[in-house]
Amino acid sequence: MIERFNLRDHPQVYVENKVINAFLMEESAEVLPITTLNDKVVLTKQYPSNKQIAAWLHVSEEELTVRK
Question: Which domain of life is it from (predicted)?
């Protein structure tokens, strides 16, 4: 499952998530956005591409596409 949270709208998520909280305390908010996978930081300062997400999840990019 992919979840996305905005610091301004969901600050409690950033406080409660120990991985994110520790990373922000060490690095500052300049590293946002932060992408985690299995409680590990895998990407900072940018949003992941579909290609990156597909590789992390071991699926094809086509499987990430919503079909109508």
Answer: Bacteria
